[in-house]
Design goal:
Elements lengths: L3 E6 L2 E3 L14 E9 L18 E7 L17 H4 L4 H38 L3 H21 L10 H27 L2 H7 L3 H13 L5 H19 L6 H23 L10 H24 L5 H6 L4 H26 L4 H23 L5 H20 L10
Antiparallel strand pairs: 1-2, 1-3, 3-4
Helix pairs in contact: 2-11, 2-12, 3-4, 3-9, 3-11, 4-8, 4-9, 5-8, 5-12, 6-8, 7-13, 12-13
Length: about 400
């Protein structure tokens, strides 16, 4: 007897029983099937030589009484109209992220400008940089305790080994901010930040000395305009004095030492923490490290009684000190938020632009006298910093044997 195999889909085969014509009066079920003719085998076991046609589309009519077994087809994929995402969704998401990143960069620069302005005003009236730095760490400690206490940010679980690894970072962080405030108290804000443009130079030197990371010729070439520009700006600086100059240089050394130490004292992956948490811990530790030094070196000078006896406006000094401290920690937090969204190279370029913005804004606000040669030296140094941020990602080609 000849058999026919019916296929609902390429993956399903349905065996059908012979249907009788006596069910013709019953309602019929119309299905679109694929039929595949097979060779007929006669009673002698020989196969017929009829041609085989595969997968011809035919229409078959089945009675409801016809019994057959089937497996349900897998769910069909959604139609293009249903599954398609509107083209405007990715564009809107990208636009939102761009606006968010732009807003963060704007806040980073704005907080930096106000920190330098308020901090300079405080240091001009109150000549105790250690106490000023301690007040900034104290305000930061209160903010950190507030965030951790109200669970606004997850409080980390610290071990003695982690504290031991973070302690050197906190020490150089304390010194870096202290030396910066000492320089701001002695020279103009613009000059301090021009000297601090030499941070890449000290980063390269310290990395080569302690990490064995030697710079490429491109990086060395970018350091030439940095050093030359700072030297030219220093020679022509109207507010130049050696105390302010060497304090800013010491700030460069300590800040870049923090970066080197953070690479050498790497903690385990399971003990790792994000930058904002690490900065919060360092802030608290810096406060406790600097408090005895401030009391021993300068005494308790930030009381209303002492400030009034010195002829200072207590309310104004307190408000400006508080605003400077808030702006200091705000721009640090925003800086880490930006670093989580962009590459280190982009962040470095943004930091270079930030220094330009701070220098220009401080010159305008404080009416700092700037000669053409001094401005040219500052521009050359900042251009070198920008060049350094671009070429430091260029890897030197390995030497072939």
């Amino acid at each position: 007897m000849q058999s026919v195999a019916f296929t609902l889909s390429p993956s399903l085969s349905l065996p059908l029983r012979n249907t009788s014509l006596q069910h013709a009066s019953r309602p019929f079920l119309s299905l679109r099937l694929f039929a595949k003719h097979t060779e007929a085998v006669n009673s002698n076991g020989a196969s017929s030589s009829s041609s085989s046609t595969s997968f011809l589309r035919r229409s078959w009519t089945l009675s409801p009484s016809s019994s057959f077994k089937f497996r349900p087809l897998p769910p069909s994929p959604p139609r293009a109209a249903e599954s398609a995402v509107p083209d405007s969704a990715p564009a809107d998401n990208s636009l939102f992220k761009t606006l968010e990143l732009g807003a963060l960069f704007g806040l980073w620069y704005l907080f930096n400008i106000y920190f330098n302005i308020y901090n300079k005003q405080v240091l001009k009236a109150f000549h105790y940089p250690v106490t000023v730095t301690l007040v900034q760490f104290a305000v930061g400690t209160v903010l950190v305790a507030f965030m951790w206490g109200l669970n606004l940010y997850k409080r980390p679980k610290l071990s003695s080994a982690m504290l031991g690894a973070i302690l050197p970072l906190a020490a150089v962080h304390t010194l870096g901010n202290l030396f910066t405030n000492m320089s701001l108290g002695k020279v103009a804000v613009s000059f301090t930040h021009t000297i601090k443009a030499m941070e890449p130079f000290f980063s390269v030197v310290l990395s080569a000395m302690f990490l064995g990371e030697f710079p490429t010729p491109w990086v060395v070439g970018s350091l030439v305009p940095i050093v030359g520009g700072v030297a030219l700006a220093s020679v022509t600086e109207a507010s130049f004095n050696w105390a302010g100059f060497w304090s800013a240089m010491a700030s460069n050394v300590t800040n870049q030492s923090r970066n080197v130490l953070s690479k050498k004292a790497m903690v385990n992956k399971e003990d790792s923490m994000d930058n904002i948490t690490l900065f919060s811990i360092i802030t608290v530790m810096s406060f406790f490290l600097l408090a005895p030094v401030a009391v021993f070196k300068e005494g308790v000078k930030f009381t209303p009684a002492y400030l009034q006896s010195a002829g200072l406006n207590v309310r104004q000094l307190y408000i400006r000190s508080l605003l400077a401290a808030l702006c200091f920690h705000a721009y640090q937090q925003v800086s880490y938020m930006i670093l989580q969204r962009v590459s280190p190279v982009t962040h470095s370029v943004g930091n270079c632009v930030k220094r330009v913005v701070v220098i220009v804004s401080s010159v305008i606000f404080f009416q700092t006298p700037v000669s053409p040669v001094n401005a040219f030296g500052t521009a050359v140094a900042l251009a070198g910093v920008f060049l350094y941020s671009r070429v430091k990602r260029i890897k030197s080609k390995p030497k072939t044997a």
